[in-house]
């Protein structure tokens, strides 16, 4: 895949970039290693000052970088501005909270005495240069939620971003440099995916994090396993959105539309499978389908647009294949389902009903504005359908019954359970999944500690 900005609204190639050669990659790896030796010793206050400055600059650049993101991958420009603001918020959150999240831990005095020590502690120390392999769908947020905690922990980062968002990738490197971080603290590597394996094998890279597809995650995990390096993987998701009879059905249907089509439906944590109790199924299906039909599809740079184009022609073709397979296998198309005429990689908001386990869309992630509806006879069947997926990123549950909430929290196989609301990431809460959605956590204290050397310090009596 070429490293290029291709506007998905019209297919026009706007900018192309040459991949870095081996000499430049070597220079950057040497620089990362050398920078880490000194940056790791800086004080939290100094790191926080730099990160807060980066947040201020990002706020100033918000409108400009939003247009860049929209032009590169097609998200509605209002959502792009919100993404930039969210990144600045996360930077400030980590600048404020990192010292407490990474503070020395003191074991219980009785345990210290029992170990034969006069005193002991647990200290969090940085690991070193971390390789981040990031996707195009949230081209700022996916990177910042790694970079902010990594930099505050004293690590340095090397970014291999998706090849269709090179301008955003270069902007991030420039942003941290303008904020005052030395050049080696955060570097963008303009390389193709084929170069990742060799870089990950380099001894100077101490760990890696990847957000992306399951095949990409498997490849990085395999190499990291051979090299005995720590990895965090956030892969696909096919999140359930369960609606029970006690729920506010109209409100659930309204939120369901946003939960499905956020970022043009290209979000791992977007609700994709809507599992509705039989008692309220017809009402929910009607309201939800009406909401999907009413969405404004168009130029993502226009303020009123709610759904823009998919990020790539291949992505649209993959989505079409899933819908066509479901239709051929007996699914009912309640709205959408047909590629529109004209330029750009648009696909209409689509609702499919009558899904069965043999359809590909039941097992695979639909990365675009396509929703699947399931009818559940009771809570047991709702849990069964929700867990009948190779993925387990997050989940959404709508009910006013406390006992039902307890049951869903206990039994849903997911990294998050959001009750009477839609899944959304926040710097204070851990984010990640189970099963084929990956392992490890981003954000919160759990995320900042993923790339730390957890060191026991023991002093004899």
Question: Helical proportion?
Answer: 40-55%
| Count of structural domains | 2
- The average pLDDT is 98
Q: How much of the sequence is in beta strands?
A: 15-25%
Cα(first) to Cα(last) distance is 61 Å
What's the β-strand tally? 19
For this structure, what is the CATH homologous superfamily of the largest domain?
Answer: Aldehyde Dehydrogenase, Chain A, domain 1
Strand order of the largest sheet: 11-12-13-10-9-15-16
CATH architectural designation of the largest domain: 3-Layer(aba) Sandwich
Textual characterization of the structure:
Belongs to the aldehyde dehydrogenase family. The chain is an alpha/beta fold and 461 residues long. It is 43% helix and 20% strand. Strand 9, helix 9 and strand 10 form a beta-alpha-beta unit. Helix 3 packs parallel to helix 5. The longest helix is centred in the first third of the chain and has 30 residues.
Features:
alpha/beta; Ald_DH_C; NADP-dependent succinic semialdehyde dehydrogenase; NADP; 6-stranded mixed sheet; 2 domains; Aldehyde Dehydrogenase, Chain A, domain 2; Aldehyde Dehydrogenase, Chain A, domain 1; single chain; 461 residues
